[in-house]
Structure to design on (91 residues):
């Protein structure tokens, strides 16, 4: 499992879903690589462009397994890669 920072995502211009575990379910929030949360159709209000996403960034190590299972179990996510957000990046 590769550990990345939000700065890495910005430098590589990689937009992503930020994955967390809330109320016993997986929550995926879409973010532009610039750090802004994406709106409908993955539109970034800051860059004024639509983003494509193929990365899921896991907020915590304990959800990595859940996210990997999710990727394998959902055909529309089969090309996604899961990364772990470096612990120092969490609030
Ligand atoms: Zn943006």
């Amino acid at each position: 499992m590769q550990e990345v920072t939000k700065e890495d995502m910005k430098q590589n211009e990689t937009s992503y879903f930020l994955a967390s575990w809330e109320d016993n379910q997986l929550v995926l929030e879409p973010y532009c690589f610039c750090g802004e949360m994406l709106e409908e159709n993955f539109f970034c209000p800051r860059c004024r462009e639509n983003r494509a996403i193929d990365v899921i960034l896991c907020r915590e190590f304990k959800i990595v397994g859940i996210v990997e299972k999710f990727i394998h179990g959902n055909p529309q996510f089969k090309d996604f890669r899961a990364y772990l957000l470096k612990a120092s990046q969490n609030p």
